Amino acid sequence: MRRVPLWFSAVSVAAALAFGAPQLLAQSEPANATGQCKDGTYTTAKSKKGACSSHGGVQTWYASAKADAKAAGSATKDAAKDVGNAAKDAGKATKDATKSAVNAVKPRPSDAPKDATAKCKDGTYSTASQHRGACANHGGVADWYK
User: Fold this and answer.
1) Strand arrangement, sheet containing 125-126
2) Could you report the per-residue pLDDT of 42-79, keeping only the tens digit for each?
3) Is residue 110 part of a domain?
4) In 47-120, which residue ranges form alpha helices assigned H by DSSP?
5) Which of helix, strand or coil describes residue 106?
6) Which structural domain, as residue segments, surrounds residue 135?
7) Residue 54 falls inside a structural domain
8) Which of 44, 60, 120, 138 is deepest in the core (most CB within 10 A)?
């Protein structure tokens, strides 16, 4: 009779060790791990060649997946930058086209003074010899004349 409790105790201890030991021995993957060896340890080797050589070889190699994710993130960032630059260039082109249309040189109308070089936005005329500063106090230039 004494054998049954002793046997039961031995089986219980063996079961506890069998199911509990892997959890005790299991390691969590380090953040900088590049692969897992066949014996369950992790490596931070830069290349797969020679990694885990004294641990039974490489079981799973993470570095390529991490590099691919990093490259994808970099590509996304570059694409966003390109879109931003394209939008900026388009805005500049629109602004330049608008400015060119506004500043297009037109023939002087007959009711304008003979020496007028521009018509200001408030309806007055300017005889400025330079574009810079012409109609500065009159809301800017509406039309340039030849």
Assistant:
1) 105-106, 141-145, 118-120, 125-126
2) 998 888 888 898 899 999 888 665 556 666 677 777 77
3) yes
4) 63-102
5) strand
6) 105-145
7) no
8) 120
Block mean pLDDT (10 aa), the chain, length 146 = 70 68 62 89 88 90 66 73 77 66 76 91 91 90 87
Which residue bears the tokens 């500049």?
Answer: 92
The residue written with tokens 């004294």 in the block is: 54
Do the domain assignments include residue 122?
Answer: yes
pLDDT at res. 16: 67
Asked whether the beta carbons of 122 and 138 are under 8 A apart, the reply is: yes
What is the tally of structural domains in the chain? 1
Residue 22 in tokens: 């892997």
Cα gap 100→87, rounded to integer Å: 20
Q: Which two tokens stand for residue 70?
A: 């990093």
Residue-level length of the chain: 146
